[in-house]
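In this supplementary section we document a worked example of the pipeline. Step one takes a protein sequence of length 215 as its only input; no multiple sequence alignment statistics are reported here. Step two produces a three-dimensional model, which step three serialises into structure tokens for compact storage. The input and output of this example are shown verbatim.
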Amino acid sequence: MRERSLHRLIVMWVVSLLVAAASTAELRLGPLISDGMVLQRDVPVLVWGRTDAAAEVTVTFRGSSVGGRSAGDGRWQIELPAGPAGGPFRMTIKSGAESLLIQDILVGDVWVCSGQSNMEWVVASSMNAEAEMALASDPEIRHFKVPRSWAAEPVERLAGGSWERADSDHVGDFTAVGYFFARQLRLDVEVPIGLINTSWGGSRIEPWMSAAALR
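The serialised model returned by step three reads:
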């Protein structure tokens, strides 16, 4: 009897922990929304993530706050007003007692660098690579490499990735085409440049298309 009672207590304790965990969702963001990110200038910007179901969410950026409420599954999306280029800025995201701070945000032009091996080719493998990497020193060029991953359906979060500055420690892993393009563009358009590198050498066009487009 004593063992049965102890077993019952353990089961109840485990169940209570699971219920508590299910009822307290963590405020989460995708890797793309993180320190060092570049946002597109002059257009409304979307910020998204997950939290508790039907919870209030407030995003504060550039002196203004925009609020919203998460859906029943905890997903939320908030649209920030358009703004000019500049930075660095900070962004605060709050939901209930939780608060996340994102720092070193730039606003400028964001380019998606997609394709196969020609776009995936990195600076470290290019001509005069050592000299190019040694000279790299533009903190207003940022690069985000989307990790190689696949799924049969659209997924909510990327498999990883982070924003990196164009400096000697990181530029070797940048897409070479994207980096040299951004460096030249900076001479004419004096705004921060963000590169989102989604390239995958040897990939076919079909996996990049939606099911509706393929039909």
